[in-house]
Write a structure and sequence with these properties.
The protein has about 220 residues and is an alpha/beta fold. The chain has helices at about 40-50, 90-100, 100-110, 125-140, 155-170, 185-190, 205-210; strands at about 5-15, 15-25, 30-35, 55-60, 65, 75-80, 145-150, 175-180, 190-195, 200-205.
Length: about 220
């Protein structure tokens, strides 16, 4: 099984260093949770890893293959951005045929959330319906690693729980890096939590680390 290896990522925005020599690794079969305050650079980091965002310096490798751009990531990494990425004029059933290998299509067509949507165009779906379709298309794809940026935004608790369950089921063949503004969602599914602050990643061992960093206010560890 392969490992995603990310090293020496350095990124400036408007002369401000937002990512400083970032290093992380993720094995297939593992989920990395990436948390941090708004504007800390979480989305930018995922885009750089996937290859759609430039950086002053970066090194991304899967197995023995070095990935220099988004073309190199084909069938190795898939990325869920915060905004919708599927074409609006195409029906859901056709999107499944375009994006998935034949052996995974039936599984999605028969999915209880997706089956009622098959004859609808993507553009008429609700925000939550769009989100779960995009996530499941990535989860059932051939890619070995999946980057999910705020996957639970705009979905109901039932759908959120199904997404968490689906991620755990796919972990036997994929590795995941997940961001979410609600750290509880990340903690539920992640094997390792990384906190991005001041351009650097720090591993979080338990909630006390988040309290001490001021990420969680009004805690038993800090009063006032």
């Amino acid at each position: 099984m392969n490992k995603l290896h990310v090293d020496s990522i350095r990124k400036f925005y408007n002369n401000r260093l937002i990512l400083s020599d970032i290093f992380l690794s993720c094995n297939q079969g593992k989920t990395i949770g990436l948390i941090g305050r708004n504007g800390s650079g979480k989305s930018t980091l995922l885009k750089i890893i996937f290859g759609v965002e430039n950086a002053e310096n970066k090194y991304v490798r899967i197995g023995e293959k070095i990935l220099k751009n988004v073309g190199d990531s084909r069938n190795l990494i898939n990325y869920l951005p915060q905004e919708n990425f599927l074409p609006g004029e195409i029906k859901v059933k056709n999107l499944i045929g375009l994006f998935l290998p034949k052996e995974r299509r039936v599984q999605l067509i028969n999915n209880k959330f997706i089956n009622p949507l098959l004859q609808k165009k993507f553009q008429v779906l609700s925000g939550g319906e769009k989100r779960i379709l995009e996530i499941l298309l990535l989860l059932y794809s051939k890619a070995e690693f999946i980057l999910l940026d705020e996957p639970f935004e705009g979905v109901s608790p039932i759908v959120r729980d199904f997404i968490l369950e689906s991620i755990n089921k796919e972990k036997n063949r994929k590795g995941f890096i997940i961001t979410d503004h609600d750290y509880e969602n990340v903690i539920k599914v992640a094997d390792k939590i990384l906190f991005l602050e001041n351009g650097c990643l720090k591993e979080i061992k338990d909630k006390k680390d988040l309290f001490e960093r001021g990420y969680l206010p009004n805690t038993p560890y800090h009063t006032g």
